[in-house]
Amino acid sequence: MRKIVLVPCQFEPKSLMPSLRKRLEELLQIPVHIENMYCQPELFFDAQRSQYNALQILQSLPEIESQKTLICTAVDLYIPIFTFVFGLARLNGCRGIISSHRLSPRYYGLPNDAEILLKRLIKEAVHELGHLAGLKHCRQFDCVMANSATADEVDIKSEFFCPECHSRFLRHFNT
Ligand SMILES: [Zn+2]
Ligand SMILES: [Zn+2]
Question: What CDD domains does the entry give (predicted)?
């Protein structure tokens, strides 16, 4: 069975990493580790947009086929065709990234709420790991593989795969 490795990279708040790791392991039933890896998002900063190129950050990381590596960051991510992304991962790839930047209530002028932020981070992490397992976006509104363009849409979906996505996910990790 493959393992999942979370890599904090300019991630805030750091105190959420252990809870994120534990919940992912419970949900996915796959060993989840936190490891450090050389990662420099500042190399991929676009001064005009004041954002970081998510695709270039991913491409700068080593490809380790035996594990799924998920970068966890607090920098604001984009890819050229979108104004921003909560996260990014290639279908069937081994590297993904999520950002807490626009998942934090503070970004929307609301008070800090670690519980809400953690819930959203868990959903985005499961979602990107789903893409790494070859899953596309799902039409079930409450499936974690539903596409979310806003933080409100992240709140609407659950942290779980629908039965069909779940069986595909298991098939990927058990082969
Ligand atoms: Zn997606
Ligand atoms: Zn689904």
Answer: Peptidase_M54
